[in-house]
Amino acid sequence: MTNSISADWWRQAAVYQIYPRSFSDANGDGIGDLGGIIAKVPYLTDLGVDAVWLSPFYPSALADGGYDVDDYRDVDPRIGTLAEFDDMVAALHGAGIKVVVDIVPNHSSDRHEWFRAALAAPKGSPERARYIFRDGKGEHGELPPTRWQSMFGGSAWERVTEPDGTPGQWYLHLFAKEQPDFNWDNNEVHEDFLATLRFWADRGVDGFRVDVAHGLKKNLDPAFDALRDILLSRDMFHDGEHPLWDRDDVHDVYRAWREVFDEYDPPRTAVAEAWVAAHRRGRYASREGLGQAFNFDLLESAFDAARFREVIAHNLDDADATGASSTWVLSNHDVVRHATRYGLVEDRTPAAGKQWLLDGGDPAAVDAEQGLRRARAATLLMLALPGSAYLYQGEELGLPEVGQIPDADRQDPAFFRNPGVDIGRDGCRVPLPWSREGSSFGFGADGAHLPQPAWFGEYSVEAEQSDPASTLSLYRDALALRRELQTEESLEWMPAAPDILHFARPGGWEVVANFGAEPAPLPAGDILIASGPVAGDLPGETTVWLRAPGR
Ligand code: NOJ
Ligand code: CA
Q1: Catalytic residue among 33, 64, 127, 211
Q2: Which residue owns the Cα nearest ligand 1 atom 5?
């Protein structure tokens, strides 16, 4: 698995997500950059990850944190240059770390040259046919073509001003209005993305994370026009019948992508971000398609043994059925960090985390110690599962969500578009603390683009790196052990009390997680690693890896 030339490197990989603007700022302008990533290659090597996935670093007005792409084949000048990108790939590859980039095919930004051309061209032109333009309803076309609400709130349609200055057609945007949806029935769009994939694959990129992979293809039948909350109504339509999500013909796109991936040696990999019913995920993860799909089931689960077991068993069965490897995620740039979620007093799901943020993100409403204890236990369990583990920058520090950010500093469109309903995702995107003190806690020489709280230094790399009990040490030790122990083979559940999950992996490796508050008997064996202090019994909210007796 860790062999750098293996075509299967991704199947059991530990992949570290970098949110480039908030990782490390080498030139001191407050924005993380490629130079910062290069500077931290030794850190990533010590951490022991197999690959990094970079969230978008393309030129962008940041209407959605870079998921509004102006040019798919360039680097945002605030983040670096293509030459630096090549240097970064060389440095990461030199350290044995693979590089995955984010590709955003459902929509471009409204500054993309094609969208500008569409605005400058008349109704019915080939330029407009690359996006989804429609006439409005009402006597003068003054009403949006449908009632659909976008994912970030407000209408999913925006009216344009025609080149002659008159109010004109409307274009579809499932996300922010700065993110016009492409028309994936247009072959030019299709061909252009193949060119983009080759552009990055030729530069040595090993894989792609595919944003909103379940979008792209649409059925604009007027029968759906009146459904206001259609984008949220994933359950209303089943098995490819939803007009906007998870349509069967999206797989025609990915079959063509797979042909491109397979032109390379080793073949380029992909992971789909597809929010679809679990039984539809395998289509994205198929060998003929993207190869792997995110499973967000653990991330959406409360800290609960029965729920975790159900999710794990189900996903491993799916992986067996499709031949893809499972994926596991506890945090990413879209949700409240798991060290905070698990410290919320009642519910510990992302939805509850969002509500807590909306209610003011009061630190007193979170038991930070408990949250971190559970986060460490959940992570150590996740790292012991067959399949790839996706880690989000900062979770290796046990970093909590930043609950309180002044409104004036917020950046996420979800906040601006949904006053009082959504506070946005900035709290998990605050630049990382590298040192205990100093300018932006070592992130860069001159401040950070989102404000860091005074307590950030306690969670810094500097504060944790030499402390064997720190969360950073736990991640390093666990990732190192995982490299030795991880195999393709599935797990075997062992009998356990209701609050306990106990399973065996090949080679005498056993994993026991206590989700309850009370200590439980510890099965026999030598402790390889523990998520917290263990003396005698297995304390509550703690996971251990054991070597079974006699192995
Ligand atoms: C999913 C990304 O993870 C999220 O950050 C983004 O806002 C949407 N896709 C739209 O691109
Ligand atoms: Ca910078």
Answers
A1: 211
A2: 334
Indicate the residue type of 397: L
- How far does the centroid of ligand 1 lie from the alpha carbon of residue 108, in Å? 12
- Tell me the percentage of the chain whose pLDDT exceeds 70: 99
Q: Is 178 in the pocket of ligand 1 (CB under 6 A)?
A: no
Per-residue pLDDT reduced to its tens digit, 366-386: 999 999 999 999 999 999 999
Q: Which of 104, 175, 331 to mutate to test the pocket of ligand 1 (most atoms within 8 A of CB)?
A: 175
Task: Measure 212 CA to ligand 1 centroid, in angstroms.
Answer: 7
Full-model pTM: 0.97
Is 68 a pocket residue for ligand 1 (Cβ < 6 Å)?
A: no
Among residues 338, 356, 336, the alpha carbon closest in space to that of 346 is found at 356
Distance between Cα 250 and ligand 1 center (Å):
18
Among 53, 64, 107, say which to mutate for ligand 1: greatest number of ligand atoms within 8 Å of CB: 64
% helix / strand / coil in the chain, to the nearest 5? 30, 15, 50
Contacts of 123 (CB under 8 A, 6+ apart): 133, 135, 162, 168, 169
Helix (H, G, I), strand (E, B) or coil at 70: coil
Distance from residue 296's CA to the centre of ligand 1 (Å): 14
| Cα four-point dihedral sign 272, 278, 282, 283 | negative
Tell which atom from ligand 1 comes closest to the C-alpha of 212: 9
Q: How many CA atoms lie within 13 A of 34 on its CB side?
A: 24
Q: Is 211 noted as a catalytic residue in this protein? A: yes
The tens digit of pLDDT for each residue in 300-355 reads 999 999 999 999 999 999 998 888 999 999 999 999 999 999 999 877 788 889 89
Give the whole-angstrom CA distance, residue 354 versus residue 336.
7
The span from the CA of 425 to the CA of 410, in Å, is 9
Query: Per-residue pLDDT tens for 208-244?
Result: 999 999 999 999 999 999 988 888 776 667 788 899 9
Residue at token pair 């930004």? 109
